[in-house]
Amino acid sequence: MHLTFIKYFPLYARTRQDLFSLDETSKGLCFSGRLLEAVDLLCRKGLSADPQTYALLLQEAINRKEIKLGRRIHAQMITTGFVPHEYLRTKLVILYAKNGYMETAHQIFDRIPHRDLVSWNAMISGYVRNGLEQKGLNLYYSLRSSGLEPDQFTFASVFRACAGLALLEHGKRAHSVMIKTQMKANVVVNSALVDMYFKCSSLSDGYMVFKGSSERNVVTWTALISGYGQHGRVVEVLELFHQMIEDGFCPNHVTFLAVLSACSHGGLVDEGWKYFSSMRRDYGIRPRGEHYAAVVDMLGRAGRLDEAYEFVRKSPCEEHSVIWGALLGASRIHGNIELGKLAAKRFFKAQPENAGKYVVLSNTFAAYEMWENVAGVRGMIRSLGIKKEPAWSLIEIQGEVHTFLVGDKSHEQSEMIYEMINSLCCALAEAGYASDT
Questions:
Q1: pLDDT, greater one: 421 or 36
Q2: 269, 302 in Cβ contact below 8 A?
Q3: Where are the PPR repeats (predicted)?
C-alpha cells in the first residue's frame, strides 16, 4: 500500500458551522462508544474533521483494534486533503503497527520529520510482535543513533527480540545500556529480561534478574518457571510453582503449561494429573488445547498410549490439531502404526491448508515404510501447488549473527560449513544412526 498525502480543495462547500457540527457530533458518538456511526458520519458528509476529532477517532480505533475503521479514517484524511501533523501520523503508525500492517506503518513513519519516542516504540514493538525480531532490533540501533534515549517500552521490545533470536550478546548490551541510564525496570521489562536470559541459555543471569526485581507479578514468576522448564529443570519448576503460590500469586494458563510440560519431561505422570485437575478446580482456569496436548505428551512418553487416546477422544478440544500432533509423536516413538495412522489423519484434517501438515503426514508414512502413501501425499502437495515456507536458522558468534537457509550457499564460509556437515553425517552413519525422515 503506497501512501501519498495530497493537499487539494474539496468539492464540498465548507462553513464553520458545518465543520463544528461534524466535529461535535463525531466526538459525541465516539465518547458514547459508537465508533462505527462516527466514522460513517465522517465519510458520508465528505468533510475533513479537525485534528482533535481525528485523534479521538484514531485512538478509539487503536484501543478496539478496529483496523478497518482506522483505515477508513485514514482514507478520509487523504480524500479530503487533510495533511496530518506529526502527532496524528504517530497515531497512524501505532494503528497500523498494532494490527500487523508493518509496511504501511513504516511508510508513514519514514515521513515523520521529527519522530518522537512513541513512534519509534510503536515500530519496534510492531516488528517484534509480528515475528520480525531482526527488523525490530535494527530499528532499536537506529533509535540509539538518532540521539533519543530508549525507555522501558523500548527495552521490553528489545529483550523480546533478543529472546526470539537467541541473541545473548545483543541482549546483554541492551541490558547494560538500561543500567547505565539508571532506568528502574518495571515488572514488564524484568519479565522480558528474565525470559531473554533463559531463552539464551544464561540461567544464572535470568535468576539474578528475578531475585533483584523489587516488583513481581504472575508474568515474572511464569517467565522464571517457563525458563527452567525449557531446560528440563523439573525440580526447580515445581519448587518455584509452589513458592509462587505461597507468595500469594495465582498461576495463569501459561504457568500451568510450563508445569505440565515439566511433568511430561520428568516422567511425573501422577503429579501431572494432579496439576491438570487443579487448574479448573482450584483456580477456575479452563484448560486449552495446549494443556490437553501436554497431558497426551506426558502419557505418551510414559508409554500409556491407550490411556492417551481415550483422553483425546473424551477431550472437549478433540478437534484441536496440537492434541493429535502430540498423540502422533507418541505413536511414532513407540511404533504404534495403527494409532499413528489415525492420529496423522486427524492431525492433517484439523488444518488441511497448512503446508507443514503435509510434511508431517509424509514423514509419518515414511517412518512406517508406507511408501505408496508417501508418494500419494507428495503428489498431492505438487498438484495443489502447496509450498512450505523455508525457515531460517540463526546463530550468534562473538556478537555477530549468522543466518542459514536449507540449501543456501551464500555464506562466505559455506564451503567449509558443508564440508563439516558431510563429515558429521558420515560420523553419525558410522555410529549406526539412521534418520526417520
A1: 421
A2: yes
A3: 116-150, 217-251, 252-287
Q: According to CATH, what is the number of the domain 1-114?
A: 1.25.40
Q: Give residue-wise pLDDT tens across range 320-360.
A: 788 888 888 888 888 888 888 788 778 777 766 666 666 66
Helices 51-64 and 86-98, axial angle in degrees (round to 10): 20
State how far Cα 257 lies from the chain centre. Answer: 16
d(CA 173, CA 94): 27
Task: Name the amino acid, one letter, at 163.
Answer: A
CATH of 116-215, picked from 1.10.10, 2.60.40, 1.10.287, 1.25.40, is 1.25.40
Contacts 24+ apart (CB under 8 A), 399-404: 399/169, 399/170, 401/134, 401/165, 401/167, 401/170
How far apart CA 377 and CA 375 sit, in angstroms, is 6
Other Cβ atoms less than 10 A from the Cβ of 351: the count is 11
Number of residues that this document lists for the chain = 437
The grid cell for 361 is 503426514
Interval 250-306: pLDDT, tens: 999 999 999 999 999 999 999 999 999 999 999 999 999 999 999 999 999 999 999
